[in-house]
Amino acid sequence: MVKFGNLETLYSGSQYRLLAFWDKTSKTETLVFATHGMIKKKSKVDKKEIEKAEQIRQQYFKNK
After folding, report:
1. Is 17 within 8 Å of 56 (Cβ atoms)?
2. Would you tell me how many other CB atoms lie within 10 Å of the CB of residue 1?
3. Which of 2, 19, 23, 24 is a Cys-bridge partner for 31, taking CB atoms 3.0 to 4.6 Å apart?
4. Which helix (H) or strand (E) holds 7?
5. Edge to edge, what strands does the sheet with 31-39 contain?
6. What integer pLDDT is reported at residue 2 of this predicted model?
7. Is the pLDDT of residue 1 over 70?
8. Each residue of 19-57: b (16+ CB within 10 Å) or e?
9. What is the pTM of this model?
10. CB burial of residue 18 (10 Å; 0-12, 13-18, 19+)
11. Residue of 11, 59, 13 lying closest to 35 (CA atoms)
12. What is the mean pLDDT of the chain?
């Protein structure tokens, strides 16, 4: 199971959500990558947004 982070913030009355993943392949550092963001309209993240984040994550590790 792939785990993504879900970072949320409130700015100018709107809630924003960022999807992110972690690269822990280094023994000394952990990199955090935000794949994309959206304005939060409901409590659950749409499946298409998770799929988009997964495609970005796969591309990153493929090219690493």
Report:
1. no
2. 2
3. 23
4. strand 5-11
5. 5-11, 14-23, 31-39
6. 53
7. no
8. bbbeeeeeeeeeeeeebeeeeeeeeeeeeebbeebeeeb
9. 0.79
10. middle
11. 59
12. 89
